[in-house]
Design goal:
alpha/beta, TIM Barrel, homodimer, eight-stranded parallel beta barrel
Chain lengths: ~290, ~290
């Protein structure tokens, strides 16, 4: 079975980019050019996502479809999600399904089957139910990004309280992630068990990186959500000389997929992805490439 | 907007049952009678679930479709989930979609739209991202059951550690659930914000009930997973004289939907649901009804 983290690392090396483009299509935000051609909302979402993929396939290593944006259209939306994952895969992209699933083992097996069926290489998971609920995804050959520390306003109240031993809840989760991932490291030295760590929590990121040295951090919140390249630096593995060694995959959605500019919509997206890659390259590898 | 907890309470009063039938269809376990007639797996799942609903609609207040079991078949499976929710709703059942969703606010809005589209009255949510991520479901008119304490083997490691102030992580979640739910109580005195509390954690259940006096507890793990009627008693509201006052909705899946017996498969299911109702009535209302 191919090793997810090694595949991702090879893609990062090829593209020299740690940028991940989030596919969070929202009808009202789609380019006019797409909406004029496709009056049916689900078809517009499909055309837009396939167009984004074609625009960025050579420029970034990965895309991250947000499952919720497709599920909201019911079974037709899920069919589009499958088409989007399949197209991204065929274009050589690493597909991280942002589904934040979490359920007991037997249900997790079903969710893993669904993600494999859709064509994902990896999936985001919520491990509040415990790490026995994470293993079925790995057993199905998927990479996993477990939620550790997120950037949304309400996350502090749940993830930041201190345990009796001084660790935060997030740090406790981080240690569990590292433990589960220890046996799942590939030739790259990185594990198939990664972590979601928000860009705007960089101060805590240093500690989380210490606890999770072999994890790929999937970092949401770059761009429109306020995270900066400087925030990313705190999350990268120490001493990384190359993007492929940094152990970060930085997601931006709105700031890339709805990029405005002088060109056609796909050109603007490609330009935004290239700009993001440039900014991140400096951040994760210490100096301009 | 109709109040979920009040609707559920009225259904419990009508059926005099706190039993919820879990729709967790797994192809290999379906009755021979269904599998012989439907060679296509997705059609077999559909026919089975519709048949279970017809068998129990007059006997129990609610069903709980497990989203994973349908999602594993991709978009066709999601179409069946929608048909199942719709049919249950048309039969007067309260539909609790067991999806354990959890994502930041804007994605939660999409998941809420998906659950409404499918026809659910309520949804299970995972609040590890914080309780701002729970509100969109309520705003969409759904009842919510937030994961607090589950019964699976790995749950202790995440939900049971003690915070610096002596509370467990689960107790901290319980207090947040109670706080969010305080303003969402209906005429029944019960809140639209409920909690998932496993049947096999009854010792902790007493403390969780103290922290969440106005919450409906959705209790998985009854029957095949090892929870007993005595375990349920610890979770019911103190002094409940009637099932409708108990504030519990007890789920069984395998022990009901795959019940064996002397009758046709639907008869066996109906008998199992009735037996469960009988056992639970004693547990939640203090004495045999």
């Amino acid at each position: 079975m191919p090793h997810f983290a090694d595949f991702l690392t090879s893609r990062i090396a090829e593209t020299r980019s740690v940028a991940c483009v989030g596919l969070d299509p929202v009808l009202e935000s789609l380019p006019d050019a797409v909406r004029v051609r496709h009056h049916d909302p689900v078809e517009a979402v499909r055309a837009f996502c396939l167009g984004v993929i074609d625009a960025v396939a050579d420029a970034v290593p990965a895309v991250k479809p947000q499952s919720a944006c497709f599920e909201r259209y019911g079974s037709r939306g899920v069919a589009v999600l499958e088409a989007v994952c399949s197209h991204a895969r065929s274009r050589g992209l690493c597909v991280v399904l942002d589904a934040k699933r979490g359920d007991i083992g037997v249900s997790a097996q079903h969710y893993a089957a669904a993600a494999v069926h859709a064509g994902a290489h990896a999936i985001t998971v919520n491990a509040y139910l415990g790490f026995d609920t994470v293993e079925p995804y790995l057993d199905a050959g998927l990479g996993v990004f477990a939620l550790v520390r997120t950037s949304n306003p309400g996350s502090d109240a749940v993830q930041d309280p201190r345990l009796h031993d001084g660790r935060t809840v997030a740090a406790m989760m981080a240690e569990r992630v590292a433990a589960l991932g220890a046996a799942r490291r590939g030739a790259s030295g990185l594990s198939d068990v990664g972590a979601v760590v928000g860009a705007t929590k960089a101060a805590q990121g240093v500690e989380l990186r210490r606890l999770m040295p072999s994890q790929v951090f999937l970092v949401p919140g770059y761009g429109a959500q306020g995270g900066t390249a400087a925030d990313i630096r705190a999350l990268a593995r120490a001493g990384a000389k190359d993007p492929a060694e940094a152990g970060v995959l930085v997601n931006a959605s709105r700031s890339v997929i709805y990029a405005r500019g002088v060109g056609a919509w796909q050109e603007n997206i490609r330009t935004a992805a290239a700009t993001m890659t440039e900014e991140l390259g400096t951040a994760v590898a210490g100096e301009p490439r």
